[in-house]
Specification:
The complex is a heterodimer of chains A (about 500) and B (about 100).
Chain A: H1 8-31, H2 40-45, H3 52-63, H4 66-79, H5 85-111, H6 116-124, H7 127-159, H8 166-214, H9 219-229, H10 239-257, H11 260-268, H12 272-282, H13 285-288, H14 290-303, H15 309-312, H16 315-324, H17 328-368, H18 375-397, H19 404-415, H20 419-427, H21 433-452, E1 457-458, E2 461-462, H22 463-481, H23 486-498
Antiparallel strand pairs in A: 1-2
Chain B: H1 16-29, E1 42-43, E2 46-47, H2 48-70, H3 76-88
Antiparallel strand pairs in B: 1-2
Helix pairs in contact in B: 1-2
Classes of the chains: A mainly alpha (about 500), B mainly alpha (about 100).
Chain lengths: ~500, ~100
């Protein structure tokens, strides 16, 4: 993000304020749960007792981060009106949840699942499938965390006008994140999500209003400007782009719902009613969040015409500066907004890190250790894993890739390969573990190969989606051909009985 | 958790019309059916295809809200009954 003229020590003050607030939330939520450190369910799922408001905000923080603003506004600037697809694919994420969340919630409550792998192990009774699913989830989460750490550093150095160097800023907030997560576990993470979500929402709306003021207060003028200067940004896109649009909707709609930390939020709901009410609020958030960011990006084409691709990456910083200059009220709101962006990035990172820790401690360490590991010990191991992972990723984050959105697609393409194990596994008793393993592996290899060789799409269809189709075909044909083991058949029956 | 009555159980995945309806609304929002390069007409300051895409997105939001409200009830009744029972005998007080 471009350095802000109002940054410097004022920016440092705002950031410190947010940091202190997060630590206080962690401290008090830890005090309210004295036995949290001895129970995996309490530490990683807040006891499975999150209410509507907190669950809504923690789902919101899982789906949207500061990155949604920093990365998507420039995308709208570059692409123009066809970037409305970002609103559609965020909306369809809720349909992704509808595919599996109702039944998974019921099964998870009955069998006290902690991690997404618990479901895979329960359903398929196959160490190979469980291990592959865990590795894919860890890969996706690590990629996601890396992206957040890069964005965090850029936002912090931008807000403080480089008074706080990139590395120092990230280190401070990583320590804050680790400390409050350690003190309060999932409950602290979810409660900080409430604070961070409100800051982000208020800031986006203020940025949109400021953008309108700067663009002259008329949407028609922006469109007219684009019609004259960049007609491609207004015109109906070519057919291949429309296919790409639909592909993106399917890929992101299913992929985001498969985030391990999103699945753990389904487990964390106090009740089915609570989960439904939270999701009903979430349904409308794409219009308010991605929709507002889309408008901000398009208005900027008129406010800052002619930016190159690299320059457009700094769009939100430029606009925040300009909006802050309108009057003292906007100045204060923009200061809080950029602090809110940093906080929102932290809130997204903490959820992913907590999920990563739970997967390593429960599904790798406790599973493959040669002796019995108690829950208290697993929680400690999880905390240690969090520290090691976050610092390993920081070493990578010091040399950030140029465009944030490109790495976003990478993780989704892998996580979406989990969908057959969750969706088909919940409803089709005959689904067998062997085909699930080979389907997941083939889908992941195909999607990764396409991405790594630079062939990200085929006739507009994303590699991740092509991998998913191959994955599904192997699952279905393979399951029709092979005979299930008695334990698999029993697991399939038990899912039907759970509801 | 006690089992809820089978007649009241509803799962969105079991109703094909939800998915057909959703697909239709999403497909209408993507301008694949219009000639590429079309700019006009502009309505309310937006190209008409974008206006349709915005309407489609609002439609998807409303449709999913309805599906969540009316077509999902697996264990809610049983949970509510359990909660009512627990609060009657005082064991609900630990909940936050």
């Amino acid at each position: 993000m471009e350095n802000l003229t109002f940054g410097g020590w004022t920016g440092i003050g705002v950031l410190l304020g947010f940091a202190v607030l997060m630590l206080l939330i962690g401290y008090f939520s830890g005090r309210r749960q004295p036995n949290m450190r001895h129970s995996m369910k309490n530490y990683y799922l807040a006891g499975g007792n999150l209410g509507v408001l907190v669950l809504f905000f923690t789902l919101y923080a899982t789906q949207y981060s500061g990155n949604t603003v920093i990365g998507y506004a420039p995308q709208a600037y570059r692409v123009g009106f066809p970037w409305w697809q970002s609103v559609t694919f965020f909306t369809v994420v809720m349909a992704g949840y509808l595919l599996f969340a109702p039944r998974l919630y019921a099964v998870a409550k009955k069998h006290s699942f902690i991690t997404p792998t618990d479901w895979v192990r329960h359903r398929f009774s196959s160490p190979a499938v469980a291990l592959l699913a865990t590795v894919l989830m860890l890969w996706g989460l690590a990629s996601y965390l890396l992206e957040q750490l890069i964005a965090m550093g850029q936002a912090i150095s931008g807000l403080t006008g480089d008074t706080v160097p990139y590395q120092v800023g990230v280190l401070v907030f990583v320590f804050v994140m680790l400390i409050y997560s350690w003190m309060g576990g999932m409950r602290a993470v979810a409660l900080t999500d409430v604070m961070q979500g409100i800051a982000l929402l208020v800031g986006i709306v203020a940025l949109l209003i400021g953008g309108f003021v700067l663009a002259g207060g008329s949407w028609s003028e922006t469109t007219q400007y684009l019609v004259e200067q960049r007609p491609d940004a207004v015109a109906v896109p070519p057919l291949e782009e429309s296919v790409n649009w639909f592909s993106m909707i399917l890929l992101v709609g299913i992929g985001i719902a498969m985030y391990p930390h999103a699945i753990q939020r389904i487990y964390s709901a106090r009740s089915e009613r609570t989960l439904k009410r939270s999701l009903k609020r979430m349904v409308w958030m794409p219009l308010i969040t991605a929709g507002a960011v889309f408008c901000v990006g398009l208005l900027s084409t008129q406010i800052f015409p002619g930016l190159s691709d690299d320059e457009s990456e700094q769009l939100v910083g430029r606009l925040t500066n300009a909006v802050a200059g309108i009057n003292p009220v906007f100045y204060v709101v923009m200061l809080l907004f950029v602090g809110g962006i940093v906080a929102a990035i932290v809130s997204t990172s903490d959820s992913a890190l907590l999920s990563f820790s739970s997967l390593v401690s429960k599904d790798l360490y406790a599973r493959y250790a040669k002796r019995e590991i108690g829950e208290h010990r697993q929680v400690i191991i999880g905390k240690g894993v969090g520290v090691v992972v976050v610092f390993a990723l920081l070493l990578l984050a010091w040399n950030p890739p140029a465009t944030l959105v490109e790495i976003f697609v990478l993780k989704i393409e892998l996580l979406v390969q989990l969908a057959p194990a969750f969706v088909l596994g919940l409803y089709w008793r005959r689904l067998a573990s062997g085909p699930v393993f080979w389907g997941m592996a083939a889908g992941a290899v195909l999607a990764s190969t396409m991405t790594l060789t630079g062939v990200e799409t085929l006739y507009g269809v994303h590699g991740g989606l092509i991998g998913l189709v191959l994955n599904l075909a192997i699952c279905v044909v393979g399951s029709l051909l092979v005979r299930q083991s008695p334990s698999e058949a029993k697991a399939g029956e038990s899912v039907a009985e759970a509801v | 958790m006690s089992q809820s009555a089978p007649s009241r159980r509803r799962e969105p995945i079991r109703n094909p019309w939800i998915w057909i309806g959703l697909l239709a609304i999403v497909l209408v929002g993507i301008p694949w059916y219009l000639p590429p390069g079309t700019l006009h007409p502009l309505v309310f300051g937006l190209p008409v295809w974008t206006l349709v895409a915005v309407a489609s997105s609002i439609g998807v939001c409303g449709f999913l809200h309805w599906a969540l409200s009316k077509h999902w009830n697996l264990v809610e009744d049983a949970e509510e009954a359990d909660t009512a029972e627990a609060s009657t005998d005082g064991s609900e007080s630990w909940r936050t």
